[in-house]
Amino acid sequence: MFKLTEAASKAAKRFIRFSEEPVLGLRIGVGGGGCSGFKYEIELCSKEEPEDEIITVDGIKIYTDPASIPYIKGMTIDFKETMLESNFVFDNPNASSSCGCGSSFEIHTISEAN
């Protein structure tokens, strides 16, 4: 479905390991918003939803809602750290454009994403 770079995998495992709450894995999806129409959502997942698609990437359980799958299919998630910030970075071949912050994107039609 999508890939995690080594840096993203290490960061995710670190966040899961040091979470103060019980964590099942990561929840990755797409929501409305941002300056380009859609925004990436990534967070620690503590509860499985009945409709979740669950895959395992590099030993990490990834929970995704079915509606997000066409938007994130083929995407690569990286993790970048600088002196000022650290964040997940999304390289999405389905995005027709993205904003400067890299957190939101646009897709002309869903059929283009498949």
UniProtKB/TrEMBL annotation:
Residue ranges spanning the membrane: these are none
The record places domain Core at 2-102
A GO molecular function assigned to this protein is:
4 iron, 4 sulfur cluster binding
Example GO biological process: iron-sulfur cluster assembly
Q: Domain of life of the organism in this record?
A: Bacteria
List, alphabetically, the InterPro entries matched: ATAP, ATAP_core_dom, FeS_cluster_insertion_CS, HesB-like_dom_sf
What is any Pfam family matched here?
Answer: Fe-S_biosyn
Q: What is this protein called?
A: Core domain-containing protein
- Give the organism the record lists: Magnetococcus massalia (strain MO-1)
Taxonomy of the source species: Bacteria, Pseudomonadati, Pseudomonadota, Magnetococcia, Magnetococcales
